[in-house]
Amino acid sequence: MRHLIDILELTVEELDELCKKATDIIANPEKYAHKCAGKKLATLFFEPSTRTRLSFEAAMYELGGNVLTMADAGSSSAAKGESVADTAKMISCYADIIAMRHPKEGAPLVAARNSTIPVINAGDGGHQHPTQTLTDLLTIRAIKGRLDNFTIGLCGDLKFGRTVHSLINALVRYDNINFVFISPDELKVPDYIIDELKEHNIPYEEVTNLETVMPQLDFLYMTRVQRERFFNEQDYIRLKNSYVLTPDKLDTAKSDLCIMHPLPRVNEISVKVDSDPRACYFEQALNGKYMRMALILMLLEQSGDGKPEPLDGELIVDELICDNPKCISSTEQELKHMFRLVNPEMGICRCVYCENKKVRGA
Ligand code: NCD
């Protein structure tokens, strides 16, 4: 039984296959027009979305399937206090596959543990967004013809930007990727990702100034400051305009730079940049539909017996308590607090839902 909760669940070979499948779908849509006839995708969106939900739905329709949609959490039983686990159990009786977006980190994992059909994480709080990464990988591959040997600058809200987290996790597995993280000090990449980079000796730089690093970049991945994740509106107001990409700032950039953005943009890319041939963000959005078609096909083919696979790693159950208020364990009824032992010598553990760090015995 396959789900897609974290991009790391897909091997490099599977990522390659998904890109190839999406490319074939683009070239031969008629071959795929009935592949999901009689199947239903349920889109459960507990947070706003335009591209992700509609591209999932367009993907299922273009595969000949149908869609059950819950776009407004306020009109669902979640508003009455239903747990994610119960929702997932119920939807398993109505649909063949679920795409879920939720403000709590780890909610799609809870859904996957309780569902008998594949669950796709369509964004969980400020944590991960693996299907945006599939879109990004297809875009990079289509433009450069490869997924290795380049320098990528990720700019903006690297702390709360879930698309950034999943993209870094995916790219660390390819050769010779140099990461340049451009953010204000308050919005730096979370430590669980930096730990991974250090462990694998992956080169990265953390800077605050976009202009100084511009000439070295092959890709510039801009992101929105994630207002909805801030605890304090004043902090958001202070940081929201940290970076605004305008045509003059691109004067020193490579002629074959590729500017990406998961969208929606607020004002971090001027609309004047849209006519620059280096702007790739609208093409990137279109790729989302094809990659989601490829993913739905893959997961439905491998849906197995409906039983959840055991979680990997050494698990510590109900010994440590996750105190992250954004973690699904803070609201889900009777959910066991589960940590994975990531560094046995030092007793370092991370919450399986949100990666919050705890030291055993501390
Ligand atoms: C992103 C998201 O929801 O995380 N949008 C998307 O899915 N394309 C980025 C964002 O909201 O800033």
Provide an overview of this structure.
This protein is an alpha/beta fold. The protein has helices at 12-27, 51-62, 84-94, 107-114, 130-144, 162-171, 191-199, 210-213, 233-239, 281-301, and strands spanning 40-45, 66-70, 97-102, 119-124, 150-155, 177-182, 204-207, 219-222, 258-260, 315-317, 338-343, 348-351, 357-359. A five-stranded parallel sheet has the order 7-6-5-8-9, with helices on one face. Strand 8 (219-222), helix 9 (233-239) and strand 9 (258-260) form a beta-alpha-beta unit. Helix 2 (51-62) crosses helix 10 (281-301), helix 5 crosses helix 6 (162-171) and helix 5 packs across helix 10. The model has no long low-confidence stretch (mean pLDDT 95). Residues 51-52, 123, 129, 132, 162-163, 224, 262-264 line the site of N-carbamoyl-L-aspartate (NCD).
